[in-house]
């Protein structure tokens, strides 16, 4: 059978994967703290059908052989951790990380997850939690009669209590970072978990040792550039169409030969 | 039956092989840094002796790779780089030999090794580049890597290594079975200090999609002509048999 059929099939599935990634990026264009994915393509192995330099007769050599590539594959996706733009919300428990790093979140199974989505709330016990009810680490408990909560850029959380002149210190938030954030595993709901590729977490005071500082009352928008995604969508679609054209051409050739011979 | 049918048949097979080369180029139309392969047909005479040399087979082959530049695409990533003009980034192939690539989408692994997108180490002044923990990595125009070491203020910068950029003679280069470009003689290439990088850009595939698609269409029509030839030879042969039967 015509090998072009299988080669172009790899082209189609690679563009399919790319389109899925683009549509996920666009779907999350308004998701706070979302980081876009890029697809990385790689050409597949080549088959040598005729070795260059082989003897074509007793005293002549083939000047060039026949080496045919077998298509393309998706080698992986890369999370792009460039910062998104800031939006001011003025809600006391909205936090954005200015710079590198993540908030640490406690998963129900006791392990840690990491996020850059700083939309926090208070649950019935006064703990600071994400919208899914997972607790922010280190855990901070806000007293019931707190009137205002203020968070400094280096993570000190204070509350003013009715009738008390001095603010009450509730604890200090930390920021966690990784050598290779691109290697983190995305587990959905804006959270990541540590992998062998990301390296181990290093936790520290916000604004120190290269970690980002905390900006209260702001949120980090997604870093999806919709124009770029739409342009990528056009190139993906056209590449897809051309590869499918090759498949139909190869198909017509086979049809022609089976009808005419 | 006339032996010409074998010439038409071999030609049809070779057309399919040439189409496979173009199909592979088209499948990689969106692969960053991909270099398209050429396909050509060459006539291969069977007999050059006395009398009429009427038999010549056509054979498809790929005489080489197209080393023209792809276009530059701005990504804004710190670790993306495109080579300006002629030149290549030196990387280490899985078998330990030196290979060259123009796909400059780089990344760091947890040990600080600088890798290409398909996990091959990028070569520096003295072998594969490994960076100490850094808050920010900047690629200079000449391949120099400047980092802001982890935990240091923004004014403390350190130059750690320099990406090995090379400019081999393109006639010396050949694409291997793993799709990597190497020198034909397997030698290492000396670095060239004149090559410039554009940080924040990647070079796209240099495949001309229209060109590839047109070639595939043209080859498809040529294939049909060959099938037509086979059909005619078959008709001739049955006509001869018809004449002989009439005697």
Automatic annotation (TrEMBL), chain A:
State the compartments where it is located: Bacterial flagellum basal body
- UniProt-listed GO biological process terms: bacterial-type flagellum-dependent swarming motility
Domain of life according to the entry: Bacteria
Residue ranges, annotated region (Disordered): 194-217
Q: Which residues form the Flagellar basal body rod protein N-terminal domain?
A: 10-35
Where in the sequence does UniProt note compositional bias of the Polar residues kind? 194-208
One of its Pfam families is Flg_bb_rod
Q: Where is the Flagellar basal-body/hook protein C-terminal domain?
A: 216-259
Per UniProt, which keywords does this protein have? Bacterial flagellum, Cell projection, Cilium, Flagellum
Q: Please report the stretch or stretches of sequence annotated as the Flagellar hook protein FlgE/F/G-like D1 domain.
A: 96-159
> Which cellular component terms (GO) are annotated to the entry?
bacterial-type flagellum basal body, distal rod
Show the InterPro entries listed in the entry: Flag_bb_rod_N (IPR001444), Flagellar_basal_body_rod_CS (IPR019776), Flagellar_FlgE/F/G (IPR020013), Flg_bb/hook_C_dom (IPR010930), FlgE/F/G-like (IPR037925), FlgG_G_neg (IPR012834), LlgE_F_G-like_D1 (IPR053967)
Coiled-coil stretches noted in the UniProt entry, renumbered to this chain = none
Subunit record text: The basal body constitutes a major portion of the flagellar organelle and consists of four rings (L,P,S, and M) mounted on a central rod. The rod consists of about 26 subunits of FlgG in the distal portion, and FlgB, FlgC and FlgF are thought to build up the proximal portion of the rod with about 6 subunits each.
Give the record's family classification: Belongs to the flagella basal body rod proteins family.
Record-given protein name: Flagellar basal-body rod protein FlgG
Originating organism: Oceanicoccus sagamiensis
From TrEMBL, chain B:
What keywords were assigned to this record? Bacterial flagellum, Cell projection, Cilium, Flagellum
Q: Pull one GO CC term from this UniProt entry.
A: bacterial-type flagellum basal body, rod
Q: Where is the Flagellar hook protein FlgE/F/G-like D1 domain?
A: 82-146
Name a single GO biological process: bacterial-type flagellum-dependent swarming motility
Localization per Swiss-Prot or TrEMBL: Bacterial flagellum basal body
Limits of the Flagellar basal-body/hook protein C-terminal domain: 198-242
Q: What is this protein called?
A: Flagellar basal-body rod protein FlgF
The protein's gene is named: flgF
């Amino acid at each position: 059978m015509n090998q072009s059929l299988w080669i172009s099939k790899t082209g189609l599935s690679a563009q399919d994967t790319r389109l899925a990634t683009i549509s996920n990026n666009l779907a999350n264009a308004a998701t706070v703290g979302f980081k876009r994915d890029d697809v990385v393509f790689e050409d597949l192995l080549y088959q040598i059908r005729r070795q260059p330099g082989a003897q074509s007769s007793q005293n002549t050599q083939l000047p060039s052989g026949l080496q045919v590539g077998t298509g393309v594959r998706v080698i992986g996706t890369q999370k792009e951790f460039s910062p998104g733009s800031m939006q001011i919300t003025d809600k006391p428990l909205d936090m954005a990380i200015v710079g590198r790093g993540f908030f640490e979140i406690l998963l129900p199974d006791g392990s840690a997850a990491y996020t850059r989505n700083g939309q926090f709330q208070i649950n019935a016990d006064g703990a600071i939690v994400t919208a899914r009810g997972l607790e922010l680490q280190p855990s901070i408990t806000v007293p019931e009669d707190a009137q205002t909560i203020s968070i400094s850029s280096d993570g000190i959380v204070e509350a003013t209590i009715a009738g008390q002149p001095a603010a009450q210190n509730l604890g200090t938030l930390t920021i966690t970072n990784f050598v290779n954030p691109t290697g983190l595993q995305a587990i959905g709901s804006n959270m990541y978990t540590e992998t062998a590729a990301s390296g181990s977490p290093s936790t520290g005071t916000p604004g120190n040792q290269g970690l980002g500082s905390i900006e209260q009352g702001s949120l980090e928008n997604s870093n999806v550039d919709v124009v770029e995604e739409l342009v990528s969508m056009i190139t993906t679609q056209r590449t897809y169409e051309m590869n499918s054209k090759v498949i139909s051409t190869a198909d017509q050739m086979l049809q022609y030969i089976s009808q005419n011979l | 039956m006339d032996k010409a049918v074998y010439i038409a048949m071999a030609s049809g097979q070779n057309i399919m092989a040439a189409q496979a080369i173009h199909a592979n180029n088209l499948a990689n139309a969106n692969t960053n840094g991909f270099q398209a392969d050429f396909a050509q047909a060459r006539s291969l005479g069977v007999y050059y002796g006395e009398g009429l040399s009427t038999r010549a087979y056509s054979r498809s082959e790929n005489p080489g790779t197209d080393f023209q530049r792809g276009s530059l695409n701005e990504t804004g990533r710190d670790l993306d780089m495109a080579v300006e003009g002629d030149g290549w980034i030196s990387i280490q192939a899985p078998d330990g030999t030196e290979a060259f690539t123009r796909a400059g989408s780089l990344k760091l692994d947890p040990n600080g090794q600088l890798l290409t997108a398909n996990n091959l180490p990028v070569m520096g002044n003295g072998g594969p580049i490994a960076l100490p923990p850094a808050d920010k990595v900047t690629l200079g125009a000449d391949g120099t890597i400047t980092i802001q070491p982890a935990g240091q203020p923004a004014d403390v910068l350190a130059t750690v290594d320099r990406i090995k950029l090379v400019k081999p003679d393109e006639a010396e280069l050949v694409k291997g079975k793993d799709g990597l470009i190497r020198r034909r003689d397997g030698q290492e290439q000396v670095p060239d200090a004149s090559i410039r990088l554009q940080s924040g850009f990647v070079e796209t595939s240099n495949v001309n999609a229209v060109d590839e698609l047109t070639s595939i269409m043209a080859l498809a029509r040529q294939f049909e002509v060959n099938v037509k030839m086979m059909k005619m030879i078959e008709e001739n042969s049955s006509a001869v048999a018809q004449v002989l039967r009439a005697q």
